[in-house]
UniProtKB/TrEMBL annotation:
Residues 1-18 form the signal peptide. Pfam families: Trypsin. It comes from the Eukaryota. This is Kallikrein m. InterPro entries: Peptidase_S1_PA, Peptidase_S1_PA_chymotrypsin, Peptidase_S1A, Trypsin_dom, TRYPSIN_HIS, TRYPSIN_SER. Keywords: Disulfide bond, Hydrolase, Protease, Serine protease, Signal. It comes from Rattus norvegicus (Rat). The keyword S-adenosyl-L-methionine does not apply. Gene3D superfamilies: Trypsin-like serine proteases. Residues 24-248 form the Peptidase S1 domain.
Length: 250
């Protein structure tokens, strides 16, 4: 009996650890509607939660290019994905514009603009955020938010939007962690000791630094929040002109 209890305890610990590997780690539940630019991307006719995204204007959302799917909807003003909320708006995406130099295998230029079927109603729970024109320096405090999934033993979604506080990491730390893979279109964020990170399911969500959108959750280690391996984000300061030009011409 003692052996059986020990085995069950070990399994329970393994389950908790595996769940923690697949969502925002080291964070906390965001204050409701405190990240009003955060959107949830929903895929297919069943509107299954897929990725995060960010509202840039009353008709445009930005997300990671690897979140592209044939049919997408965007849910805005959300906190709890499992229930209807008075602040929510759900709109169909009518145009997907990935960056023309997006390279899936290299995770490079991992951004995509989404045009919505109509203009959203802006208010307390739904607001836009500006894209940073200048790149953030190492040590800049930032916040990441998302509804990253738990993947083991079964797929689960957190009840409410999660937030985590991280810092922009020096380029040399990023290159040391991922040699030969980091480009000017990427920026790393985390904490040196690990334990705080975005993870699978948070893709396309915002990295907000000093009130501006600095990055989008893009990629990282399969096991997240490991010391010395920060999360990698699309470095939006280097795409400001393309973003503005694309929204204005479409």
């Amino acid at each position: 009996m003692l052996l059986l209890l020990t085995i069950l305890q070990a399994l329970a610990v393994a389950i908790v650890q595996s769940q923690g590997d697949d969502k925002i780690l080291g964070g906390y539940t965001c204050v409701q509607n405190s990240q009003p630019w955060q959107v949830a991307l929903q895929a297919g006719p069943g509107r299954r939660f897929l990725c995060g995204g960010v509202l840039l204007s009353d008709q445009w959302v930005i997300t990671a290019a690897h979140c592209a799917r044939p049919l997408l909807h965007v849910a805005l003003g959300k906190h709890n994905l499992r229930r209807w909320e008075a602040t929510q708006q759900v709109l169909r995406v009518v145009r997907q514009v990935p960056h023309p130099q997006y390279r899936p295998q290299a995770h490079d230029n991992d951004l995509m603009l989404l045009k919505l079927q109509r203009k959203v109603r802006l208010g307390r729970a739904v607001r836009t955020i500006p894209v940073a024109r200048s790149c953030a320096s190492p040590g800049t405090p930032c916040r990441v938010s998302g509804w990253g999934t738990t993947a083991s033993p079964i797929v689960r979604y957190p009840t409410a939007l999660q937030c985590v506080n991280v810092n922009i990491m020096p380029e040399q730390v990023c290159h040391r962690a991922y040699p030969g893979t980091i480009t000017s279109g990427m920026v790393c964020a985390g904490v040196p000791e690990g334990g705080k990170d975005s993870c699978q399911g948070d893709s396309g969500g915002p990295l907000v630094c000093q009130g501006q959108l600095q990055g989008l959750v893009s990629w990282g280690m399969e096991r997240c929040a490991m010391p010395g391996y920060p999360g990698v984000y699309t470095n939006l300061c280097n795409y400001h002109s393309w973003i503005q030009r694309t929204m204005q011409s479409n």
